[in-house]
Design a protein that fits this description.
heterodimer, A: about 110 residues, mainly beta, four-stranded antiparallel β-sheet, 10 strands, B: mainly beta, seven-stranded mixed β-sheet, 11 strands, globular
Amino acid sequence: EIVMTQSPATLSVSPGERATLSCRASQSVSSKLAWYQQKPGQAPRLLIYGASTRATGIPARFSGAGSGTDFTLTISSLQSEDFAVYYCQQYNNWPPDFGGGTKVEIK
Amino acid sequence: EVQLVQSGAEVKKPGESLKISCKGSGYRFTNYWIGWVRQMPGRGLELLGIIYPGDSDTRYSPSFQGQVTISADKSISAAYLQWSSLKASDTAMYYCAKKVDTDLRFDYWGQGTLVTVSS
């Protein structure tokens, strides 16, 4: 199985600031990397797929980059509704593993 | 509108059996794989397996092979996750999710079913 490692575990950011989250795969997953957002008490929501393509309805302040083993999710200007846990997921190999998550909290 | 509606929360004792459901609507249920994802309290997401409702072809993640059974009834657009003998460590939120047609990623999710196993 591919191990997905996210860092940091927790990111404290002020509203309006930029947040950069990292995800590293234990072996290459090409560009088959997705990001999900999960708010407390809710199911995950697909944000980004193909490493950099925003899913339907996702605001432009969310952007993804990377390929191979190193990926980033950037939120350009954090809004109150963006404070949540973010998970990366590789879907290049079976099983499609998730990272452990990064919690973005209000500073 | 695509919707996945899961059955309600369950409280069970160790050793009991359980079957939870996920009903899809707003799309052709038989044509898209459904996945089941576990989230233990305060933890991350883990895929248990996926099923293709059209022919019940099923794939399990290695960690969950033999631990759970995934099934589907295409006549009522439902997928199921079941346990024959629950353990306390099965306590978790379980989500069903619709897989996109081309890749192993999930675009729509159910609301989750909380399973609590306690003596």
